[in-house]
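Attaching the record inline, Q. Sequence:
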Amino acid sequence: MFDKEASLTGFGDTVVDFSKMTNIPAKEAIGMMNALFRIVTGDLPLD
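Structure, as predicted:
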């Protein structure tokens, strides 16, 4: 979901900010944001 083209949609800046705030490498930050996005949209059931 969030990948290289994410910066074109504005999500790239969010990934960079999230990575800086948490000291998590960008690749892991992208993975975490993908998981959070899937949870929020219901694509990743929690039960």
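The mean pLDDT is 66. The radius of gyration is 11 Å.

More tomorrow.
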